[in-house]
Amino acid sequence: MKQRIFMYLFVFSILLVLFQYVNSKRVFEDMNNKLEVRQSQLEKYKDSIAVLQNNIAEVSHFNLERNEDAISYFENDGYNVDELIPFIKDELYKLNEVKGEHPIVPYAASEGRKMLINTVKMLNHKWIIADFSDGQYWGEIFLTYEITEDKQLKFNLVEYFLYPFD
């Protein structure tokens, strides 16, 4: 009787080991498949990041905040660039508050509206590009700017256009 019990226990333990082996093999294969999928996603994401970094480098090429020569130009005149850039943008936005027609935008607004500068991008220490709109018509302007000897900011409209209305 003792022998049969040991034999049944032996067979049961072999079945248990076999079950554990098959189950762990399936779990291991499943984990490998998941790992391969994750690695392929990681490669795809790395490629996407590289493309986005290249795009950012191209877009930010004409940007005052990344132009060391333009920053040095202001610093050599004793200006703090971190304070000067927002100041110049704010002064341009303040022109939106002038009563009547906008002093820089060369187009009249549609009836009951006013042309307003929406977005300003400082290209370097001398040039600005901005877009404007009255809610119906919109366009872009190219400005030069300078800070005079008496610390006054002076804008000069160089080029402009209005998108056609459909």
Oligomeric state of shown chains: single chain
Shape: elongated
For the sheet with most strands, the description reads: 4 strands, antiparallel
| Percent strand | 15-25%
Total discrete domains:
2
Overview of the molecule:
β1 (116-122) and β2 (127-133) form a beta hairpin. The model has no long low-confidence stretch (mean pLDDT 90). The protein contains three helices and four strands; from the N terminus they run αααββββ. 49% of the residues lie in helices and 20% in strands. The radius of gyration is 34 Å and the shape is elongated. With 166 residues, it is an alpha+beta fold. The protein has two domains: 1-59; 64-162, no CATH class. The protein has helices at 2-59, 68-76, 81-94; strands at residues 116-122, 127-133, 138-147, 153-162. The relative contact order is 0.08.
